[in-house]
Design goal:
The chain is of the alpha+beta class and 474 residues long. Helix content is 36%, strand content 19%. It has helices spanning 17-24, 33-40, 60-73, 127-136, 153-159, 166-169, 172-175, 204-208, 243-255, 268-277, 301-313, 326-337, 339-346, 361-375, 404-424, 440-446, 449-462; strands at 29-30, 54-55, 77-80, 99-102, 109-113, 118-122, 139-140, 176-182, 188-191, 217-224, 226-227, 233-239, 260-267, 291-297, 319-322, 349-350, 353-355, 379-386, 391-398. Strands 12, 13, 14, 15, 16, 17, 18 and 19 form an 8-stranded antiparallel sheet that branches. Helix 14 runs antiparallel to helix 15 (404-424). The radius of gyration is 23 Å and the shape is globular. Bound molecules: flavin-adenine dinucleotide (FAD). The site of flavin-adenine dinucleotide has 36 residues, from strand 3, helix 5 and strand 10.
Amino acid sequence: LVSTGTARPAGGVDGILPTLRAIVGEQGWTDDPAKLAPHLSEWRGRVVGRTPLMLQPSTTEQVAAIVRTCAEARVAIVPQGGNTGMCAGAVPDASGAQILVQLGRLDRIRDVNVEDASLVAEAGCVLADVKSAACAAGLYFPLSLSAEGSCQIGGNVATNAGGINVLRYGTMRDLVLGLEAVLPDGSVLDNLRTLRKNTAGYDLKQLFVGSEGTLGIVTAVAVKLYPDPGPLQTAMLALDHAGAAVLALAKLRERMPDRLLAFELIGARPMDFVLRHIPAARNPFDLRYEWYVLLDAAVPAAELESALIDLAAQQRIADAVVAKSHAEQTALWRLRHSISEAERREGPGIKHDISVPVGAIQEFLDAAEERLRARVPQAEAVVFGHVGDGNLHYNAHLRRDVPDADLGRLGDELTRAIYELVTEMGGSISAEHGIGVLKKEALRRYGNPVALAAMRTLKAALDPAGIMNPGKVI
Ligand SMILES: Cc1cc2nc3c(=O)[nH]c(=O)nc-3n(C[C@H](O)[C@H](O)[C@H](O)COP(=O)(O)OP(=O)(O)OC[C@H]3O[C@@H](n4cnc5c(N)ncnc54)[C@H](O)[C@@H]3O)c2cc1C
């Protein structure tokens, strides 16, 4: 019934290369190994693939013609945006028979409509440019992540990106009003509307959000814009336990509903890594605490300070600092944004992007600690995340004295321990990073069988030949 493996070319991929090159013209393709290299490797180098040709179409019509040509020849296609994804979904496999379609030349902002508070961007627009275009019109596009200088809006749709402002504005799924996509047979789904209400049949745009290139190629997106939230105050809180962050969040939300934009939890270990490895990083407190929260609130400074003084008086937080200047805000956020880099410098880690119900965060952390102690005592948890969304990056580093020969086995055992716990608690093994290749086996193991069967049915219905990003997700 299902075709999710690599499509088998009827006439071979080589036979269609001249046609594909002609569709995009001289500027739109390369087979130069040096130019291909960065596109063939997942950004951490964890997966490296091959391709006979990378295409960079500049119009939706070109994308449609590429897909039609590949569909007729049953040649597999891998869509790629900024290649910042965390699960290696955007790189081809090692067969050398998959065509890479990189969307970076589809980079026009087609419309910004102030009355409608909407923006239409082509899929290859870099997220930071979409945000700037909204800002230039006096409005605000809230999706915000550390990779915003290189990830693309089409990639954000394809991965249902989250980031630091989900607490107030939701994930990409909540921000998409409509989209345009090329289906696996080469037809163009024109669903590029900015309607706030539309109950005329299935909501097809949502099918593409989080589909990681397996159902079609997104070529343009219509998104919601918001009023500019105005100047933000940034504060860092120090806490003795993570559960205090959830309580502090609830209290602050009562006082400033809809004005709290970001609320990020940082454990002591990731903070230690940042202070050790990132030049000029500085602990804003005199002491080392077990947990920290970094928050952004769109309220006057005095209002935030008074709320934090009350939290401290109620002993809900141990300490707090409020940034007094843009430079101090930037320095505080640099601590958060540097965690991935600091982790990399610390040594290889095992990463998990999980979610549990917000109220169960402390319970999850306690149980996870217990299981690690019992099953992989050589591991140390490195935890940070978007606490208001119940989304933790529950990473772990194995002690340096662990022999190389044991690393793989212990890493697998550790991941099993975490994913089993997450599943028992009704959580998700992938909160915001998707599945790609790296989590495909985990989805098969921990996913709901009925949901997985429905996903396979959808995939087979839309892509019966299995040409669209085969080997990813399911
Ligand atoms: C430093 C750093 C911080 C990050 N922080 C966050 C974070 O806070 N929250 C978060 O959610 N993510 C985060 N990410 C992950 C990543 O940035 C997001 O997943 C982003 O949405 C991927 O966009 P991209 O354009 O790079 O997509 P790619 O990596 O190129 O592709 C990702 C997947 O989408 C598919 N795809 C890409 N473009 C299209 C298209 N036009 N049509 C169909 N399929 C397509 C690809 O085939 C692949 O399966 C971070 C990454 C880095 C490097």
